Amino acid sequence: MAVNSKKIAIYVLVVFILYVIITDPAKAADYVQIGFEGISSAAQAIGDFMTWIADGAKN
Questions:
Q1: Which of 14, 21, 41, 44 could connect to 28 by a Cys-Cys bridge, CB 3.0–4.6 Å?
Q2: pLDDT digit string (tens) for 5-56?
Q3: What is the pTM of this model?
Q4: Are 20 and 31 in contact (CB under 8 A)?
């Protein structure tokens, strides 16, 4: 049952993404840019944290 629910959820998500891309490509591009900015910010924060740890966790 859980596998079927997971497959259905993924199918619905893919259909929604395709719908957004087809109906409003500019808005879809904005969503992708926001996503990449979020990933970039998260990677920068992890890098800053690792640098802080490597420096001996000094302020």
A1: 21
A2: 889 999 999 999 899 889 999 988 998 999 999 999 999 999 999 999 999 8
A3: 0.61
A4: yes
Residue 39 to residues 2, 27, 59: CA-CA distances in angstroms? Answer: 29, 19, 25
Exposure class string for 2-30: b at 16+ Cβ within 10 A, else e: eeeeeeeeeeeeeeeeeeeeeeeeeebee
Reading the block at residue 23, the tokens are 């109906």
Distance from C-alpha of 37 to C-alpha of 27, rounded to nearest angstrom: 15
* Helices 25-54, 2-23: crossing angle, 10 deg rounding: 120
Separation CA 58–CA 34 (nearest Å): 32
